[in-house]
Automatic annotation (TrEMBL):
Listed cofactors: Mo-molybdopterin; [2Fe-2S] cluster; FAD
Every Aldehyde oxidase/xanthine dehydrogenase second molybdopterin binding domain range: 161-447
Domain spans labelled Aldehyde oxidase/xanthine dehydrogenase first molybdopterin binding: 1-136
GO molecular function, one term: 2 iron, 2 sulfur cluster binding
Protein family (similarity comment): Belongs to the xanthine dehydrogenase family.
UniProt KW keywords: 2Fe-2S, Iron, Iron-sulfur, Metal-binding, Molybdenum, Oxidoreductase
InterPro entries: Ald_Oxase/xanthine_DH-like, AldOxase/xan_DH_MoCoBD1, AldOxase/xan_DH_MoCoBD2, AldOxase/xan_DH_Mopterin-bd_sf
Keyword Iron-sulfur attributed: yes
Protein name according to UniProt: Molybdopterin-dependent oxidoreductase
Amino acid sequence: MAALGAFVVRRPVKLVLDRMADMRMTGKRHPYSSDFRIGLDENLRILAYEVTFYQNAGAAADLSPAVLERTLFHATNAYFVPNVRATAYSCRTNLPPNTAFRGFGGPQGMFVMESAIVKAAETLGVSPSEIQRRNLLRENDLFSYRQPAEMCNAELAWDTAAKLYDLPKLRQEVDAFNQQNERLKKGLSVMPICFGISFTKTAMNQARALVHIYTDGSVGVSTGAVEMGQGVNTKIAQVAAQTLGISPSRVKVESTNTTRVANTSPSAASATADLNGKATQMACETLRERLLRHAVLEYTLNYEGLEIRDEEVLAAGIPADTNWEKLVSSAYWRRVNLTENAHYATPDIHFDPVKNQGYPFAYHVYGTAYTTVTLDCLRGTYTFDALRIVHDFGESMHPAIDQGQIEGGAVQGIGWMTMEELIYNEEGRLLSNSLNSYKIPDLYSVPQRIDVHFLDTPGHPRAILRSKAVGSRH
């Protein structure tokens, strides 16, 4: 609209939307309507699952087809189902176009799978968790799109949570409370997850990095990652520092600019740290190799066992007669190239949209969450007593960042499931278009207690430094 105004009046135009206009026209998370059928054997093994998704795309496609694709990828959540028929329709409606939102269609697909399990459990007279645990993915089980579950931690996450948080005791406490109270009732949910890490459009899984080493020993890193508060720049700085063997204080991650790093993929799909971090790692490895080769000639050292650690040059573990700053300075005076760029493309991934088969994800992350709530049956109010999470972070590079991301994602999910209500009139105009009529989660909406346990796993080689993706933009 600003461009149109500038074209008409031939002058610069700045457009500032008020809050109500912004909320009316900004794309929202896709609502879905779904139908399912599920079949189990006498041992509670899921034999077949049939599901149809109807996605409310709004008046234009925008990202709806891609969101719908991820819904199909995550239709069976963390479970092995040998026979799956999943069909999805993107429906055009008289609403503003819906668009990308955290989870990108995955949560909608998982919710229907969990609903099917609960329905089956109620029909069979068993606990939903019995069906859940019995059908969790195991190593080399095939997803519906025929990719094997490699380095699968679904059962490990479930069993660790059950032991760490004492699931039988939690159930006993809930049952005892409900027997003793008439107006207040407690509930306990158990939710496993499995989420694929990569853009589902294969071509977008690429990134570049440009790294400069300056003569004072400082390092500048440019990538296509957009830092929006999720901590990706901190992780990229960690990658550069660890690869070069220097202090993170020497590394400056530059602002994102397509003049320096072109053709960037969006900071999305939880893949930003993996893609841009891997490119940074590759560039820094080349620079480190170049500097060590220079050290061999400059200081008459044996290349075998030569390394840079804590800004010291070590030969077979013994400090050599130089350090990082001296090495960089001498390399400059010997006209050694101290700049490198690298390109990373996630290996092995592919997907055939005609056959609906392939290897679309670099790896999967797993987790299990327990949520305890108290409901006031008279007033209709509720509180989240506790949220207990076991999550597969791999070998976390930065536990504080990862914990913040997992807590934020959990609270955002709680807001979606309990508070998010978009109301339109018959003409498709949004009525909940201000913070008076659209309630967002606040301090009183979050669980009174959030526990996050980092699952002890070796990570995945396709994750940057084996630290798995966690968060909306990592």
